Request: fold
Amino acid sequence: MIVDLNSRYGLNPAHSEVVEACKVIEPCDTLDMGCSNGRNAVYLGQHGFNVTAIDVNPGAINMLQSIIDEQGLENVKAQVYDINNASLGEHYGFISCTVTLMFIDPSRVEAVIADMQNSTAAGGYNLIVCAMNTEQHPCPAPFPFTLKAGQLSEAYKGWEMIKYNEDVGTMHNGAKLQFATMLAKKPV
Reply:
């Protein structure tokens, strides 16, 4: 039985889309982009994935590292990394980027997505959840970046769409906004 380390350490539960992706993706080398305190990384690690968790915030990485050390999670590595660099340099079977893109430099989004795609092994997966700003649903939050309708699916032309929607959802603070949600598989 898996102990719920997220609640033990006061972390939010793993993102629902990460939990769903684990029903499709076999444990593999995984990158958690913008991991914050590690809610997704800890969950993935507990489910057999070899996780590299990256975030620009050293405090968040230090908190995650203390959980890794205390729990002996040898399959989870935490490191400070600025996603805006778009130079991952390794290949992963699964790259998860949930509610992260909206916080990066808008001028770097194309490069970051291209880097994710290039760093995904053939037959591997990318999971992206990102806020949108559309005429029907203007984004109520002042994020540096939001997706336009169809922008994410366009960026992943040629990949197999396992899941794709642009639905209105509720943030953890109760705000309603539109999100693009995508789980895509890279061609072999």
The beta strands are 29-33, 50-55, 76-80, 92-98, 120-131, 160-170, 176-185. The chain has a mean pLDDT of 94. DSSP finds six helices and seven strands in the chain. The helical segments are 5-8, 16-21, 39-46, 58-71, 109-118, 151-155.
